[in-house]
Write a structure and sequence with these properties.
about 150 residues, Ribosomal Protein L9, domain 1, Ribosomal Protein L9, domain 2, three-stranded antiparallel β-sheet
Length: about 150
Amino acid sequence: MKVVLLKDIPGIGKTGDMKEVKDGYARNFLIPRGLAKMATEGEIKRIRNEKILKEHKEDLTKKKSEEILKTLQKQIHKVPAKVGGGGKLFGALTSTNLSEILSKNSGVEIDKKWINMDKPLKETGLYDIEMRLPGGVRGTIKVEIVGEEKG
C-alpha cells in the first residue's frame, strides 16, 4: 500500500515522503496513529505543493540571512564597556548583550541564538565572532570591545 508520511519515521522516511509499505502495517499502525495517510491523488498533489512552498520559503530565508550577514560584516562593531585595570571588563559581554547591541546598531533584529560564542568576553580587544543564521548561513563578524575608564 502506498502511504504519505505525516511525521518522520526512523527506518522508513521523512515527513512528506511517499512510501510503499505492507497493507497491515499501514492499516493497523501508521494510519491509526496519525503517522501516515493513504496516498490518494489529492494527497499526492497537496504534498507536492507543500514541498514547493517549503523550498521557496527556505530560499527566501537563506537570501535574507545572507543579506543580514553582509550588512554585519561591512563594519567593525565597537562595543563600549566599563573596564578596570589591565583591560578587564566589569562583568562580561555575552551573546545576549551582543545581540542587543548588534540589533540596535544595524537596525536588523539579531537573535542571540545566531551568535556562537564559547564563553563570554571579559577583556577589551578585537574579536572574530562566528554567526550561524537561519538557512545554514555561516560567517564571522568583527567586534571590538572599547574600554571606558571608570572615573
